[in-house]
Specification:
Its cofactor is Mg(2+); Mn(2+); iron-sulfur cluster. One of its GO terms (molecular function) is metal ion binding. Keywords: Antiviral defense, Exonuclease, Hydrolase, Iron, Iron-sulfur, Manganese, Metal-binding, Nuclease. It comes from Pelotomaculum propionicicum. It contains six helices and five strands, in the order αααβββαββαα. With 168 residues, it is of the alpha+beta class. It has a single domain, classed as Alpha-Beta Complex (Lambda Exonuclease, Chain A), CATH 3.90.320. A five-stranded mixed β-sheet has the order 1-2-3-4-5, covered by helices on one side. Bound molecules: iron/sulfur cluster (SF4). The site of iron/sulfur cluster (SF4) has 13 residues, from helix 2 and helix 6.
């Protein structure tokens, strides 16, 4: 893998808060089972929730959903199948807000959990920016490790598409 292929993305920020090993595996293009039911359900919810309202915006290496543009207000969002990993989702969205900010675009974020009928606003405040900086540095450190971090059993493993790879 070429070193320039390694970069921090919103997806990696999401996984960082769950499992550093998964960050390494994804970024080194070790692809999990795409037919895994959790991967499929997540994709279905992402693809079919709020279809009329959503548009996709590509910024740098990131693709984000735009929920609303108007009155000088840009709302970008993330749709998740569960709020169980809320901090991961918040920081992923904070990463997208930061990508926009670096290009001079001010936006606010909105997390949506359609199965739970919940929404949450995400704002890039000073504290979140500091946390995001720390996280990006830590992700880069993981990406440049010569081997993936050793697997550590966590609750997420039983629903992880890499479970067989890590634990068989
Ligand atoms: S199975 Fe567990 S240890 Fe392996 S990548 Fe998934 S969450 Fe991480």
């Amino acid at each position: 893998m070429e070193e320039h292929d390694l970069y921090v993305s919103g997806t990696l920020v999401w996984y960082y808060y769950i499992c550093p090993r998964e960050v390494w595996l994804i970024s080194h293009q070790i692809t999990p089972d795409q037919d895994d039911s959790n991967v499929s359900l997540g994709r279905f919810i992402q693809d079919y929730s709020y279809p009329r309202e959503r548009k996709e915006l590509a910024v740098g290496h990131s693709k984000m959903d735009v929920f609303k543009v108007g009155n000088g207000e840009l709302i970008i969002g993330e749709v998740k199948k569960t709020s169980k990993y809320r901090q991961s989702a918040r920081m992923q969205l904070a990463f997208y807000l930061d990508e926009l900010k670096q290009r001079g675009v001010k936006a606010i974020g909105e997390l949506r959990f359609p199965r739970e009928k919940q929404r949450e606003e995400v704002i890039l405040d000073e504290e979140t920016e500091k946390e995001l900086d720390r996280t990006k540095r830590e992700i880069l450190r993981i990406l440049y490790l010569p081997h993936p971090p050793i697997p550590v059993k966590i609750k997420f493993c039983k629903n992880c598409a890499y479970a067989e790879f890590c634990w068989s």
